[in-house]
Structures are given as C-alpha cells and as structure tokens.
Amino acid sequence: MAATVFAVVCDVRVMWDEAEAGYDFGPGHPMDPVRLLLTMRLVRALGLDRLPQVEVAAAPPATEEELRTVHLPEYLAAVRAAAADPAAADESRGLGTPDDPAFPAMHDASALIAGQSLAAADAVWRGPGHAVNVAGGLHHAKPGSAAGFCVYNDAALAVRRLLDLGAERVAYVDVDVHHGDGVQEVFWDDPRVLTISVHESPRTLFPGTGHATETGGPKAPGGAVNLPLPPGTGDTGWLRAISSTVPPLLAAFRPQALVSQHGADTHIEDPLAHLLVSLDAQRCAAALLHRLAHEHAGGRWLALGGGGYAIADVVPRSWTHLVAEAAGAAVDPATPTPEEWRAEVLRLTRQDAPRRMTDGFTPAWRPIDDGGYDPADRVDQAILATRRAVFPLHGLDAGAGW
C-alpha cells in the first residue's frame, strides 16, 4: 500500500510560547530546546502560520490545581524545591538525575508546556477541531516522579482534561520510539481511556516496559495496548504495525477525542534508539491519525510532539509536517527548506540544514489483508502477539485478514 495524503482543510490551533524553550536541562543534554525553536521557525518560514485555518496561540501555565489532576502534591512540591535549589533535588523523585537534571526554570517551564496542552484540549473539545503542541508529549513523567526527560506529563493532563470536560471515551496513540509508560500508568485501570503505544522493544530500549502482555487493569481489560517492535524496523514494518492495530481498535473503542504523541525519535538518524524510520513515514503516520480522528473521534484531534534528538536534521521537519497535516495543508515532500531557515539552523547549531522536506523515500507497506501473515517476519510476529493479547478484549478477531 502506498502512502496517501488525507486532504481535509481543518481549523487548527498551534500552541506556542517562546518561553517553552526554557525547558532546558543544560549543555550536552539530548533534549535540546533548539529543536522547538527551529520547528516553529520552519512552520513560519513555510507560511503555515498565515493560513486562514491556522491560529498560533499561547496559554498560561498549568495551575497547581490542574497539575494535581495527574500529579501528587508532594511531587509538585519536590519539583518547586528542585527549581529553588537544584543541588538539593530529590533523586528519589527522579529529579537531579542524569536524565532529569534540576534547573531553576524546571517548574515554570514544565507548567507552561502543560498549560499549552490543557488549552489545546479545551480547544479540541469546544471545536470540534484540531490542536498541536510540539513542545508537549512528555509521556514518561509519573504521578510522583520525573523520568526520561519528562517532568510533568502534559499528555496525561490533556487526556484528563478531556474527560473532565465530558468526554466518555478518549483514545491516546503514541508512536514515539519509547513506550508511553507514564500515560499508560495514569489510565491503567480507567475504562474510559484507551492507550496504544507502538515502540521499540523494551528489551533494547528505555523504559523497559511496553510488552504486548501489558493490557490494562482489572476494571479496564484491553485498555492498554502495546506493540513492541524489533530494533532495525524500518518504514514498511513500522507503518504495517500501526495500520494493523490502531484503526480496528479505534473503530471498536469509538473515542470522542483522539490524543496522539509524535516523537520523532523513530528516525534512522536518531542517536538514542534503533529503529530505521524515515521522515516520510512519520508524515504518513500523521496523515493516518488525522484520518482516523475524523473517522472515529468526531474530528477532535490533539497532536503532541515528544522525543526526537536529531535536533536540526529531523525534528523540525517532522513536526512541521505534523502542523501542516493537522491544517489539511500537507507540504509537498519535494519542497525546498527556506533559505532563511537554513541560515537559522547554521546560526543556532553550527550544522548544515537539510535542503528538502523529505528524506527521499516513498513509503509503502503491505496491509494485513494483502499477503497475510509471514511467520518468519519479526514485525509480523510482534503484530500478531499484540493482536492476540488485546483484540479479543475489544470483540475483534486477532487473525482477521491473516
């Protein structure tokens, strides 16, 4: 199956405050905030912010009360204390560690990112429409601790906000290379939320969770879906995995809103992981989730950023395509990157910028009803294991089409 573009013009609110770049763990840390600045400058250089259906807006930081809808009061106090005195950060709370070094703006910047995702959830529910927060997607943070470069879990906060606004069912789909463990933990036993994570195998990558056998708590059987993929999975296998699981599950669950996390660290050039996915396949995944939001979630779609550590070559282009897709104004992959943006990349990173909005691939994959199951293929083995673990819990046939 060749990739197709989902061309529906949609109103989209792009949440952005330059101060979100204050989420900065310091020199040498992989989570370099320049990736956010370069993303939004590419969005603007391509004129996406000037489209009539696009609004770029900023929201205030999440309040203490809002943060407590997911996080424990004692953890919030620990984050504030770490910001006030980074040298005394509570490592038992995941603060002041190599992954999450404490810094003076830790609470303020984290709360600001969370505030953008909360406002995005408000906009999506009121719309219905789409919203994007490229600084969001901090999916590893737990109710009582930081983890994996994530302090406050804006993704879980956004899902909780949608429930509080009246949604009876919310689906969360995470295509970051790392397991969306924090969001899964928050909603593990909540039948109103379906979490789906497609990620590299926990046998080879942080956080070591996300096995196919993790399927939800006793009150929410099948509420957690995990598809761990073998290292080396490329475009064909990655897109086959997503398209073989996400559409039938969303059709069965019938969510009233879709929240998706689009970590760009599945990319072949990402330094922290081992999948071999192209920018072009990431764009296809965004188009698929856009279409599914219209088919199964009433058009309510909130798209978040996430991981991604090839800060100039990959992240800005991947998330600019995400913004364009949400607006129904897909950027032609052959489009040259604007000269002024390439100059900004050189100025901020001392790296040469990519010249086009593509890696030069044309992704295609076999749908499950074309050729069936290949028992020798490790990706097919992973897909079938996940389908067997959760499909029957949703009234679906794990072997349908195979």
Overview of this structure, please?
There is one protein chain. This protein is of the alpha/beta class. The chain has one domain (12-331, 358-394): 3-Layer(aba) Sandwich (Arginase, Chain A), CATH 3.40.800.20. The protein is 35% helix and 10% strand.
Give short descriptive properties of this protein.
globular, 8-stranded parallel β-sheet, alpha/beta, Arginase, Chain A, 8 strands, 10% strand, 402 residues, 35% helix
Q: Supply the CATH class.
A: Alpha Beta
Low-confidence parts? none
Strand portion, in percent?
5-15%
By helix and strand content, what is the structural category?
A: alpha/beta
Oligomer: single chain
Determine the number of helices (DSSP H or I, runs of at least 4 residues): 11
Helix-strand string: EHEHHHEHEHEEHEHEHHH
Report the CATH architecture.
Answer: 3-Layer(aba) Sandwich
Please give the order of strands in the largest beta sheet: 2-1-3-8-7-4-5-6
The level of helicity is 25-40%
Strand element count: 8
Radius of gyration: 19 Å
Roughly how many Å apart are the termini? 16 Å
Q: Going by CATH, what is the homologous superfamily?
A: Histone deacetylase domain
User: How many distinct domains?
Assistant: 1
Shape summary? globular
Query: Within the CATH hierarchy, at the fold level, what is the topology?
Result: Arginase, Chain A
Largest sheet: 8 strands, parallel
Mean pLDDT score: 96
